[in-house]
Structures are given as structure tokens and as C-alpha cells.
Amino acid sequence: MERRTTVPHLETxxxxxxxxxxxxxxxxxxxxxxxxxxxxxxxxxxxxxxxLIVTELEREFDVVITDGxxxxxxxxxxxxxxxxxxxxxxxxxxxxx
Length: 97
Prior knowledge:
single chain, mainly alpha, 48% helix
């Protein structure tokens, strides 16, 4: 899957941050910068968190994330996750054309 955008859409960033905030049960005062590490960072996510985040992202963005679509690097930071979602949305919109 082609995902070469270098800057995520602001709308995508805001929506992904909300999903992460909900899934990790973080309060609204917790900063979620684009470069925040998801794996190995302050809020180190585990496999159950990944499953929950992926499920919620599928609902939020009306996309399907199949086995093999997501690579570990797609979960490295919030920005990487946003770029992954933008790539899925772009692929889905061009497939429907």
C-alpha cells in the first residue's frame, strides 16, 4: 500500500488524538504531540491497546485494517499512525473512483 504523504491532515491528527485519548483513558489535559512515542514512550501501549486503538480507528474513519496493512513503524508515533490512516483513506477513495 502506498503511503508517502509526509504531513498528516490536521483533521486526521485531531481525530486520532481523540481515539488515543479514549483508548488509553487519558484526560484532556494530557498532551498528545504528533511526535509522541506510542511504543516505548510515556504511555507505552501493549498488544491489547493496539487492538483497541485499531478497532476504534476503523470505526472512526470507516476503514478496514487487514492483516499485513499495518507495520510496526505505523504505530511508532501519533504522526506515523495519522499518516497510515491518511494512506488508507486515500487508497479507499481512489479505489472507489
